[in-house]
Amino acid sequence: MNIAGEREISLVTWNESHFHQLYPLANNPKIAMNLRDSFPQPYTIHDARHWIEHNQKFNPPQNFAIEFEGKLAGAIGAERGKDELRTNMELGFWVGEPFWGKGIANEAVKLYTKYIFEKFDIQRLYAQIFDFNGQSMNVLEKAGYIPEAILKKGFIKNGVIGDIFQYVIVRGEQNL
Question: In the structure, what pLDDT confidence band is assigned to residue 175 with cuts at 50, 70 and 90?
Fold first, then answer.
């Protein structure tokens, strides 16, 4: 599947063509510092293989490679809530350092949000951002997400405790 946007940005189903691009791009502590600890660091060739194989089982796809001008630029996806929280999906995204500052994440989030509301019967899509990651907060706000909550002292990362800022977009309230 390929979801084309403007400026040669597209969301593409993970496939073998991404394999040798993924691990060098993702193996960056500056990316890992803004993501959950489950994101491997260092990011190895084996992590890339596992991620691509893991994502080939989803139909419809939930996670996509972000491509810019035909090259892997990052990743975007969501995980559905369990049980009574199944009307929610939690969004996550990252863009590789060589692609920072080009508006890629903003367009990817807009494309992905539209796709999720078209393909999944969820009511809300939300993202949780560490307090030091103002860039991701800006991306979400530009994509139409609104601040919903601050979870005080909600995370510990590299021995530092901080606040989590939660952003949300609700079905029927989005302007896509």
Answer: low
